[in-house]
Amino acid sequence: MPKLTFNFNNRIACFHPVGQGLFFHCEFHSEDNVYIYDIGTSSKSKYIKHEVDELISRLKNFKKEPIITIFISHFHADHCNHLQYFVENAPPYKIDIILPYYSGILSDKVTRDFYSYLIGITDTNKNESVYKKILEAYASENNTNQYVKEKINIHILKDSNLESLNCLKPIKDKICFSYKEASVAEIEKIRSQITQMLGNMKVEEYFKKRDYKKLTKIYEDAFGENKLNEYSLIVGLKVAEDTYILLTGDANMSDLCHNTNYKYFSGITPIDYTKFSGDILRENSICLVAHHGEYDSNKSSVFFHSSNVNVISYGTNNSHRHPNPKLLVWKRNIFLVNEEV
Fold this sequence. Notes:
By secondary structure, the chain is an alpha/beta fold. It has 12 helices and 16 strands. It has a single domain (10-337), classed as Metallo-beta-lactamase, Chain A.
């Protein structure tokens, strides 16, 4: 299957055709680093497994053992459900897995979309499952440097942890990112309801019961069915002097431009939105259109209008009808990546 690949001297960026999902990677050969953004699909797994296998083969072409950093935008299956496949089949290289920070949405270490999904796909007989270790990382008070196996670390990306993320320091002048925080009112409402629901029960005991109806109701009332999309981790990678690749997950890009609950960073340094957008919006910028080309999440996006190249990753004949045809007529410089093109 053809990939959408960009070459920048010693850096290669690739959007993989995995169907209704997302799998992106970028190789910094001069620094011996590989960056992956999301690794999941709701289409047939054969597509993404083929792409993962090819990437694993490419890793052997590095002169030195590459350091791999994996960013997960959010925990919907079509963005993360093949992380375990990569971890199990990749050579024993150093891997850092960077996860979005939910700023209290996890509340008492609980969130419906995150936990119910992860527990549902985790093999309870595999104590070294990457998903189990992600669970432990979020549930831990000290939620950085959780080891899945030798050389694999899990990190929660938030401002108080940035100084400890050594994996970002080599490229601190080549990366920027943003995430959304929940409001104080949202956090307190969920914390109160979950605390009342749990009573004297520990979180682990609650999950053993595998009855999520009350928890689901709490989160649906507070956020709605697709609210997790809005908390996608947004990452910008500088691949050339004047070129950034903006990776947006399923974020609401209009919200990013106008919502005061977002935090913005250049490397490990906090910045404001003007600086964030100014760094990314260069003449040659490349933008992943958020939410597989879903119209509403991009119709007011300054990124979509300003970027030189726009990429949409989606599955043919998907039930969501992505991408929206209204989006496709806006600009000619749109590249479609799916399992059939």
